Amino acid sequence: MLARHRLRDGREVVLREAAESDAAALLENINLVGAEHVYILTERVPNDLDTEREWVRGFDGAHSVLYVAEAAGKIVGQADAHRGGVPKNHHTATLGIAIREGWRDSGLGTLLMNAILDWMRTRGVEKACLEVFSSNGRAMALYRKLGFEEEGRRRGQFKVRGEYVDDLIMAKWLTKPPR
């Protein structure tokens, strides 16, 4: 998959599957987002290119995928999905997303999320799952706009900048939900 997209603000990104050669750029992106301390659980990934390349190789396209959004040679966003690994949860997939500051509120989140959801649908995934900090209103708004609903809440599960934050568990049925 390789596609050019124009965002709402007029900037252009290339959306594609990640490659091993993206290891350094992926480290930069995740560490920039993590350093903000408020959007994702990860705060810092060690700068180990061999480990990062191995991590990227682990996305096989069948049970997992890692998409990147690239602009002017830099990765400005990434989204990944992992299908349930045992028969009892193989109908589900869990996703994550990280978008660099300066690229939020441009439509990039919607673009990455739709790419991940399309990947899930083409593989017969029935339910998309994610977790989000209750303090991340921007992300929650995006997920709700795309049809995700809150399924659970772990109160005070995390401390973000010294404040207790709930862990929201959200999901979207990609097929007709049971019941």
In short:
With 179 residues, this protein is of the alpha+beta class. Helices cover 26% and strands 37% of the residues. An eight-stranded mixed beta sheet has the order 1-2-3-4-5-6-8-7, with helices on both faces.
Give an overview of the whole structure.
The protein has 179 residues and is of the alpha+beta class. The chain has a domain at 2-125: Aminopeptidase (3-Layer(aba) Sandwich). It is built from 4 helices and 8 strands; from the N terminus they run ββααβββαβαββ. It has helices spanning 23-35, 49-57, 108-122, 137-145; strands at 2-6, 12-17, 64-71, 74-83, 92-99, 127-133, 149-160, 163-173. An 8-stranded mixed sheet has the order 1-2-3-4-5-6-8-7, sandwiched between helices. β5 (92-99), α3 (108-122) and β6 (127-133) form a beta-alpha-beta unit. α1 (23-35) crosses α2 (49-57). The longest helix is centred in the middle third of the chain and has 15 residues, at 108-122. The radius of gyration is 16 Å and the shape is globular. 30% of the residues are buried. The model has no long low-confidence stretch (mean pLDDT 95).
